[in-house]
């Protein structure tokens, strides 16, 4: 019996040590924070940068190896190639990690919890950027930051903490041989166009079942049209306003009713089939962004021209443009790594190889004033021009409470599309109820 | 008469398996189509059986390196699980006291915990081990093997436990009288009797570890360490998935396991097993 | 006596401690830490503050209508899955252990679905339930049965059951096969000599001797069904209108979607306790019916 006790004591001891240890590690982490975050790491980072930029003109300085983790699978390969070029040009190493697109945020969170965080990582603007903000190094004094286009930098208060990947835009992507933008200027003409196309055996418009393509993007318009979108969202979170009582949303509900009545049920449409139907001329319009052009390109010669126009809701005549993702530097990394990270970002945004990769390999619409866009696809060209002329509405959805599109708004929209008897008014009430739940 | 009923049985069995396999058919045929063809008809046979997507997938995945990593991690993890779990299960069965029953229940009940709720604390524990004991648990193959063993311990013990109970004690008693140590007794007398269940555990664990995405994705970061499932990430954008490459990649992933299974199942065929357990 | 006893214990520790230590560091300690987090309000970001809130998370989850619905769907799903998986698995195992020429091939084929996971699985089955079902419905006129199952709450849940069973049946088959192989031929032959029919032999001899395999398979299916995540995510993402949001997904959304770490952990603990009680009762009950020979 005694031995049993010894053994169980041994086991419990191991267990306890672990528990205590784990707690200890948390406090240890916090200890690190105090010494190495804002007060420690950031100044050292800014001190480091002049030497980094200085180094680019003289012989390259040997830097610590850094890691880079980002969410956009489409640029994973060009990024790995770019890391090789970087090593060739400067002798410094960047290890590029990879993750499937929808698993990225969770993996990032787990790796940060394990003290295994990457040196440079990407965050989506909005809730995700907010979530990880305790990790951002202050980049305000870095040389490449001055080239970020106005209002495009990711900020925490006055500090610049993130550099945009590029800009993206969405609206009604349309088939120029089936639709004339003059016939889609307000609710009436929009509905008539849908009806006419339906009579011709075409789908006038198609949404698709993915949460963002079903509701997330299209509901952005009534939010963006508010005089102060962020303020409106705050009030909505506090329950001081209701979508159901707001004019733009009432019209939004009518648009959704028209879409439900005259177009295929989006619950039966996947992004793949949505773009397939569009590419083969079965669908005249899709509510999509410039990113969808990469799908269309896989179909070869479409036999028609594509364009992008605003969703003509409540007089809106602008497409929605925003920054989807940003590069940030992990403030909890070792100061030498932060220095190396800034050197890499500086090289990415100022060297010819880096700039070339952003435009021609990543195929981003640059959000930097020192990088000229070239060879853009037709949709990106429209977004680029709208951005330059300032003829855009913002991505208000970036300020939505965390997880609300996928977890709350999408189910409400699914119910609306499944239940043909639900009125637009009831739909708005459901959205309000969903919002109240999601914002808690 | 008997042969006819046998052949009818065979035909039925084949038909049933084919119906069961129709989703796999979908996976195979669509690994040969480009996006436009996939969109036009996902159910039909491909217009050409060109293996270009297989070549491209293998190249992008860096297949040989990934294969080496997967093989190393899976083989070592499964060996350790089988050795440690069989020993533990045998002790639990033969020492049927309160401690054994408690530990057994503890093992079994944790099989009900969803991994998603363990992953964050797990990462913190591994971080603690790394900083305080200086054992590199993260971003190493060894660390992943260690965690694989921990996560697959429960089921292996559970399976061995169930099987060992039906092994007669008489044999062991005879061996003990012959002066065999516990260690020798287990490895020379008991373990050979467990062949069927050992192969079963090995098969189930090989499948699970070979195909695992979540745990390796949390623990392995460097490109050089990626396992086969991790290497397929290139094909899975958040919205845009390259289905042909993804499916070709999946076929490449599972072929080794199918080969292993064909090989391993010989050991659970009647005769060998029946000779062992009596 | 006492030295022998001590020696026994040393052997016991030698045989069991290595595995138990690994297990403790990988599963038990993280689980205990998780229990700790269930009393804390935290968003899951290590650098952000953790606030002790006592039992608040537990009282909150009782009022969480969506969680309760999700728990109910999980139970519904589990019961259906349990039956379907084991009926199929057992039937397959009986089929492939017949001495037919194609048995080996069939055994491999039935086992194949196990190997397909993640997003691909969802993609393939979406084709089956949306495109293939629809075209069967249109061609046969049985469109009251064959329509897009994934957009109706009830059928979407059934679809999830079918996919899970498709994956899991081969898995349990392997275990049932192992069990069947353990049954001595002599017993069956003796019964044949006694003139017992096929059905009689099955129910009176094979099934009772297969009890350990039943225990194992029922438990494995149960734990697999309660924890189901991959199939759920890739097939329906919990839709339509959360009708198929099963338990693990609900927790995942709470933790990583909303960033309510403590609440998610509290849900996990509560559900774990409930499930543990149910399944352990099941294990104990079926174990009582196992026969030694």
From TrEMBL, chain A:
Secretion signal, residue range per the UniProt entry: 1-17
A Pfam cross-reference name: SBP_bac_8
Lineage top rank: taxon: Bacteria
Keyword Isomerase tagged: no
Entry keywords, A to Z: Signal, Transport
Region (Disordered): 28-57
InterPro entries listed in its UniProt record: Bact_solute-bd_prot1, SBP
PROSITE patterns: PROKAR_LIPOPROTEIN
Signal listed as a keyword: yes
Residues in coiled coil: none
Family, similarity comment: Belongs to the bacterial solute-binding protein 1 family.
Annotated protein name in UniProt: Carbohydrate ABC transporter substrate-binding protein
The organism's taxonomic lineage, starting at the top: Bacteria, Bacillati, Bacillota, Bacilli, Bacillales
UniProtKB/TrEMBL annotation, chain B:
Single GO BP term: transmembrane transport
Spans traversing the lipid bilayer: 7-28, 71-93, 102-123, 143-164, 185-210, 241-263
Family matches, as InterPro entries: MetI-like, MetI-like_sf
Membrane topology per record: Multi-pass membrane protein
Domain ABC transmembrane type-1: 67-264
PROSITE patterns recorded: ABC_TM1 (PS50928)
Domain of life: Bacteria
Name by which UniProt lists this protein: Carbohydrate ABC transporter permease
UniProtKB/TrEMBL annotation, chain C:
Principal location: membrane
The protein's name in its UniProt record: Sugar ABC transporter permease
Signal sequence region: none
Keyword check for Membrane: yes
Family membership noted in the UniProt record: Belongs to the binding-protein-dependent transport system permease family.
Biological process, per Gene Ontology: transmembrane transport
Membrane topology designation: Multi-pass membrane protein
Transmembrane regions: 12-40, 77-96, 108-125, 145-166, 205-226, 268-285
UniProt cross-references to InterPro entries, sorted A to Z: MetI-like, MetI-like_sf, UgpAE/MalFG_permease
Domain ABC transmembrane type-1, residue spans: 71-282
Coiled-coil regions listed: none
Places the protein is found: Cell membrane
Keyword terms of this UniProt record: Cell membrane, Membrane, Transmembrane, Transmembrane helix, Transport
GO CC list: plasma membrane
Superkingdom as given in the UniProt entry: Bacteria
């Amino acid at each position: 019996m005694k031995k049993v006790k010894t053994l169980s004591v041994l086991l419990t001891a191991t267990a306890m040590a672990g528990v205590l240890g784990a707690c200890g590690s948390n406090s240890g982490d916090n200890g690190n924070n105090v010494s190495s975050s804002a007060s420690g790491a950031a100044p050292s980072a800014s001190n480091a940068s002049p030497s980094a930029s200085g180094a680019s003109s003289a012989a390259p300085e040997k830097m610590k190896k850094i890691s880079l983790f980002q969410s956009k699978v489409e640029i994973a390969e060009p990024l790995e190639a770019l890391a090789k070029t970087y090593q060739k040009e400067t002798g410094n190493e960047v290890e590029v990690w990879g993750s499937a697109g929808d698993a990225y945020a969770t993996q990032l969170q787990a790796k940060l919890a394990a003290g295994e965080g990457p040196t440079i990582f990407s965050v989506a603007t909005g809730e995700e950027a907010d979530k990880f903000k305790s990790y951002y190094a202050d980049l305000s004094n870095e040389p490449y930051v001055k080239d970020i286009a106005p209002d495009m930098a990711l900020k925490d208060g006055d500090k610049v903490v993130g550099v945009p990947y590029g800009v993206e835009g969405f609206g009604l992507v349309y088939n120029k041989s089936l639709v004339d933008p003059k016939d889609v200027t307000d609710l009436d003409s929009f509905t008539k166009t849908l009806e006419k196309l339906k009579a011709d055996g075409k789908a006038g418009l198609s949404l698709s079942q993915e949460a963002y393509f079903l509701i997330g993007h299209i509901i952005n318009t009534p939010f963006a049209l508010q005089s102060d979108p962020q303020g409106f969202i705050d009030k909505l979170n506090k329950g001081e306003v209701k979508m159901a009582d707001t004019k733009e949303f009432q019209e939004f509900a009518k648009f959704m009713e028209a879409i439900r009545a005259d177009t295929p049920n989006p619950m039966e449409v996947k992004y793949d089939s949505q773009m397939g139907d569009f590419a083969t001329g079965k669908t005249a319009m899709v509510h999509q962004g410039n990113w969808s052009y990469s799908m269309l390109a896989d179909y070869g010669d479409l036999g028609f021209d594509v364009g992008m126009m605003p969703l003509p809701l409540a007089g809106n005549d602008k497409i929605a443009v925003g920054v989807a993702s940003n590069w940030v530097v992990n403030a909890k990394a070792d100061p030498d790594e932060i220095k190396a990270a800034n050197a890499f970002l500086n090289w990415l945004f100022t060297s010819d190889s880096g700039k070339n990769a952003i435009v021609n390999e990543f195929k981003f619409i640059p959000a930097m004033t020192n990088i000229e866009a070239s060879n853009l696809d037709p949709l990106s060209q429209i977004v680029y021009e709208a951005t330059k002329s300032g003829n855009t509405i913002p991505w208000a959805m970036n300020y939505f409470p965390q997880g609300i599109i996928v977890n709350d708004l999408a189910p409400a929209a699914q119910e609306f599309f499944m239940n043909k008897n639900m009125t637009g008014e009831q739909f708005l009430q459901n959205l309000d109820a969903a919002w109240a739940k999601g914002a808690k | 008469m008997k042969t006819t009923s046998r052949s009818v049985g065979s035909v039925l069995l084949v038909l049933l398996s084919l119906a069961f396999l129709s989703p796999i058919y979908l996976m195979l045929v669509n690994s040969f189509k480009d996006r436009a063809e996939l969109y036009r008809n996902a159910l039909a046979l491909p217009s050409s059986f060109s293996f270009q997507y297989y070549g491209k997938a293998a190249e992008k995945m860096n297949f040989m390196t990934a294969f080496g990593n997967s093989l190393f991690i899976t083989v070592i993890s499964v060996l350790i699980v089988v050795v440690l779990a069989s020993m533990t299960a045998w002790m639990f069965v033969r020492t049927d006291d309160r401690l054994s029953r408690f530990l057994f229940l503890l093992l079994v009940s944790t099989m009900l915990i969803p991994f998603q709720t363990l992953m964050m604390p797990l990462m913190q524990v591994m971080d603690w081990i790394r900083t305080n004991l200086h054992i590199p648990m993260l971003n190493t193959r060894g660390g992943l093997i260690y965690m694989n063993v921990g996560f697959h311990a429960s089921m292996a013990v559970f399976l061995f436990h169930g099987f060992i109970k039906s092994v007669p004690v008489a044999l062991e008693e005879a061996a003990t009288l012959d002066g065999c140590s516990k260690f020798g007794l287990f490895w020379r007398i008991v373990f050979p009797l467990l062949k069927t269940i050992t192969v079963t555990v090995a098969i189930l664990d090989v499948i699970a570890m070979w195909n695992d995405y979540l745990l390796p994705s949390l623990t392995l970061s460097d490109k050089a360490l990626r396992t086969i499932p991790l290497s397929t990430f290139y094909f899975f954008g958040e919205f845009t998935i390259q289905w042909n490459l993804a499916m070709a990649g999946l076929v490449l992933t599972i072929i080794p396991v199918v080969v292993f299974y064909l090989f391993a199942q010989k050991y659970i065929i009647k005769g060998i097993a029946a000779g062992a357990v009596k | 006596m006492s030295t022998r006893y001590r020696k026994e214990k040393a052997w016991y520790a030698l045989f069991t401690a290595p595995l138990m230590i690994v297990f403790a560091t990988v599963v038990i300690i993280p689980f205990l830490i998780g229990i700790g987090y269930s009393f804390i309000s935290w968003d899951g970001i290590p650098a952000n503050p953790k606030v002790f809130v006592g039992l608040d998370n537990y009282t909150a989850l009782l009022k969480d209508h969506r969680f309760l619905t999700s728990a109910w769907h999980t139970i519904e799903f589990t019961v259906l899955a349990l039956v379907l998986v084991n009926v199929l698995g057992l039937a397959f195992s009986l089929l492939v252990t017949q001495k037919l020429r194609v048995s080996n091939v069939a055994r491999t084929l039935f086992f194949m679905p196990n190997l397909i996971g993640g997003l691909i699985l969802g993609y393939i089955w979406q084709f089956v339930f949306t495109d293939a079902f629809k075209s069967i419905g249109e061609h046969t006129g049985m469109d009251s049965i064959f329509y897009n199952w994934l957009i109706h709450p009830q059928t979407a849940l059934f679809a999830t059951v079918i996919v899970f069973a498709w994956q899991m049946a081969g898995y349990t088959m392997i275990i049932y096969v192992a069990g069947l192989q353990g049954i001595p031929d002599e017993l069956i032959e003796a019964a044949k000599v006694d003139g017992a029919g096929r059905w009689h032999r099955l129910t009176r001899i094979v099934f009772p001797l297969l009890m350990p395999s039943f225990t194992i398979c029922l438990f494995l299916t149960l734990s697999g069904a309660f924890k189901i995540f991959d199939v759920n995510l890739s097939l329906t993402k919990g839709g339509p209108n959360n009708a198929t949001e099963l338990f693990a997904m609900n927790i995942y959304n709470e933790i990583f979607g909303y960033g309510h770490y403590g609440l998610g952990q509290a849900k996990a603990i509560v559900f774990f306790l409930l499930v543990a009680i149910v399944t352990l009762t099941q294990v104990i009950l079926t174990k009582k019916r196992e026969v030694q020979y």
